[in-house]
Design goal:
The protein is α+β, with helices and mostly antiparallel strands. The protein has one domain. It contains three helices and six strands, in the order αβααβββββ. Strands 1-2-3-5-4 form a five-stranded mixed β-barrel. Keywords: Plasmid, Signal.
Length: 161
């Protein structure tokens, strides 16, 4: 897939699920509804996955997915046993996840299924021995559902965390 098309599609897809939630509360976040949950599945790049109708996944797409995630294309999880419609966008910075593209991950956080998104609190990548190792996330300023946050503007205007 042409990189500029990939980036444009990803930007459009990343924004679309959130457009309807803009009025939920000041700042446009959907709030903290939902309970903590854990999902296991494949880490994918959402641009190629969506553009290919779900075909861009697995080991054969790992190198491309890694490149896409490294450039900021939104990450997603395709839950184990799920089909293409079960894709959830991961609400976290995709760059630190690039090296784990197409691998099995486990995420802990809050699912916003109506928005096809998952607010990630912890992300783990499966190791060769079957265990999981936590990945350090890089999204401290934008914690949607609580936890340690800083009351700083960060260019987001009038909303508070």
């Amino acid at each position: 897939m042409h990189r500029s098309s990939c980036a444009a599609l990803a930007a459009l897809l990343a924004a679309a699920p959130f457009a309807t939630a803009a009025g939920d509360h000041e700042g446009g976040h959907a709030g903290g509804e939902g309970e903590m949950t854990t999902l296991t599945g494949e880490l994918i790049d959402t641009a190629c996955f969506v553009a290919s109708d779900g075909g861009a996944k697995g080991e054969g797409h790992a190198e491309c997915a890694s490149t896409c995630l490294a450039t900021g294309i939104p990450a997603g999880i395709l839950p184990e046993g799920g089909d293409t419609g079960d894709l959830l966008f991961l609400l976290t910075n995709p760059v630190p996840l690039a090296e784990y593209a197409a691998q099995t991950i486990k995420v802990e956080g809050v699912a916003h299924e109506g928005m096809q998104s998952f607010d990630v609190k912890h992300l783990y990548v499966q190791q060769e021995d079957g265990g999981f190792k936590e990945v350090t996330l890089d999204d401290n300023h934008h914690n949607m559902t609580g936890g340690d946050t800083k009351e700083e503007d960060h260019g987001h205007g009038a909303h508070s965390h």
